[in-house]
Amino acid sequence: MLLTILLSGFGVARLSNICNSAPAPQGNVVVNVDCFTQDRLLIALNLLYSTDDQQSWTSLNMNLLGTPGYESTYTAQFQVPAGGNVYYYLRAESPAGGSTLSPFNTNNSWPPPQNLLALANNDPVGDANAPEGNWLDLTGCWVGYSSDRFYAMLTNNYNSWPLYSFPQPWYIYSVGFVNPEASSDTYVFALAYANIPAVFTTGLYLINRYTGDFSRIADIDAQTNGNRLYLRALINDFVNHPKFGPWPNNCGYLAVAANTQSVYPIGGNYLRDTTIPAYFYAGLTPVFTIGANYAPVLSAANVNPRSGPPGTKFLFSVRYQDDDNNLPTEKVLIIDSRNYTLVPNGHYYQGGVIFREWLTGFDEGWHRFYFQFSDGMAVVTTPLDSFYVGSTGLNDAVIAGAEQQVIMPTLFNNVLPLTNLEEVVIYNSAGHLIRKLSGVSCWDGCDEHGNYMPAGVYYLFPKNRRAVMVVKIKHK
Q1: Can you tell which superkingdom this protein's organism belongs to (predicted)?
Q2: Which pLDDT does position 106 carry in this prediction?
């Protein structure tokens, strides 16, 4: 029964691409997450952050961005102090259940204090099914983890956790874990608190959802304090079992739910209460050090095509990569001093993300552009580049062929004769502006700063003439 509930998490929010901006001292840090729910119902999505080594947490609502490229991205921001480490985690709640990261129990504190646990789900008071007492009425389930243990805490509508009532029944309180990437959906791994002599005692159990068969895998720690029941088990006792599945897994979470049962040796077993499922992103608690940062890198800046008649749609693109996986707080394309918004093709910035945008409606003539990004601390730009709009634009096929030419690493050994034109603009095969000439009859092979250019393919654009001169300078 427990496993059936765990696997019915339709509509539970799924979290991915959790990232933040670079943490400038006393600056604002932006946190983003992609959140998906199958039924698109989301009650709340919260960011919880700590600036005092996880002793206390401040909760903020996250809001949907909803812009192109961020249709399912939620965001929040907060100011950080002048130094130190900042921890944070996220929790989403939908009618189907919760999804949560949790604090990191660095020192395996036992029993874990409330500040080292995250709420999986609350449970309504009074919803237990014909319970023998309020101790079987669950009111909440919390989860946590350390480097080597999974933690859980249950609360009930009573002041203790009885294990037996004379002459019967016995009681079982359990928290089940399911790895959605296990090879079979048959089994649940349950932390159970019970004392049915010679039958079912406190421990980690493997339970078959179809047959009800169970086997005890390992010992666990259990402790009660009033209406709180604490449980923990070694992670290796889960992952070393062949039926648990890979961990860490690709989706990043384990499905978790809790229940209470009454066991009558004469009369059968009865499920009294259960929580709705939660997705527990065990093993992930983002943390950053204020002021620490690697600058992002921009590459593959491009416009396609490089030229075209009025009305041409130009595709501008650039690759943003950040070793810290910091999101860009600024991400703009600047054309002739005007800013344009760019759309990303993903949100995993450590692996590199392409930002792009289609634009049209430019006036005839040459236009200069570059990309500018910031991760919240470092600002990076691409070199100034250009594209041409007009009926005398570059032939794309010629450009593509020319770009395949090898540019020889030698200097010009002579000058290039030109007709006495009013103005000539010279570009290299990559489309970068090299030189503007006016009223001269030759080009000495230098750029605007007097630097000799290497041998290769260059494009000469005479003003007021339809023809485009394509010249390959020979070397010695």
Answers
A1: Bacteria
A2: 98
Please report, for residues 123, 132, 262, 273, the alpha-carbon distance to residue 129 in angstroms, rounded to integers and kept in the order given. 13, 9, 11, 6
Digit-coded pLDDT (tens) for 205-217: 999 988 889 999 9
Spatial strand order of the sheet with 118-122 comes to 118-122, 138-145, 149-156, 228-234, 221-225
Q: Which of 417, 416, 418, 421 is nearest to 438 (CA)?
A: 421
- Neighbouring C-beta atoms of residue 56, cutoff 10 Å: 10
Range list for CATH 2.60.40.10 in the chain: 297-389
Pairing of strands 469-472, 457-462: antiparallel
Task: Please give the CATH architecture assigned to the domain spanning 396-472.
Answer: Sandwich (2.60)
Residue with tokens 């259990």: 222
Question: Which residue carries 């992002």 as its tokens?
Answer: 296
CATH class, 297-389 region: mainly beta
CB contact at 8 A, 136 and 128:
yes
* DSSP state letters, 97-116: EEEE---B-TT--SSPPGGG
Yes or no: say if 61 and 48 are a contact pair by the CB < 8 Å rule: no
Torsion on CA atoms 238, 243, 249, 250, rounded to nearest 10: -160
Q: Residue 203 pairs with which residues in a beta bridge?
A: 192
Task: Collect the ranges in the chain with pLDDT lower than 70.
Answer: 1-10, 39-40, 391-422, 429-431, 439-442, 455-457, 462-476
Q: Which of 438, 443, 428 is nearest to 464 (CA)?
A: 438
Q: Tokens 């944070």, residue?
A: 88
* Cα angle 416-417-421, degrees, rounded to a multiple of 5: 120
What pLDDT shows up at residue 396? 40
Sequence-distant (≥ 6) Cβ neighbours of residue 36 within 8 angstroms: 13, 14, 16, 72
- Polymer length in residues for the chain: 476
* C-alpha 123, offset from chain centre: 29
Annotate 152-176 with three-state secondary structure. EEEEECCCCCCCECCCCCEEEEEEE
Q: How far is CA 241 from each of CA 175, 210, 245, rounded to the nearest angstrom? A: 18, 19, 8
User: Is the CB of residue 293 less than 8 Å from the CB of residue 177?
Assistant: no
Bridge partners of residue 176, in order along the sequence: 190, 257
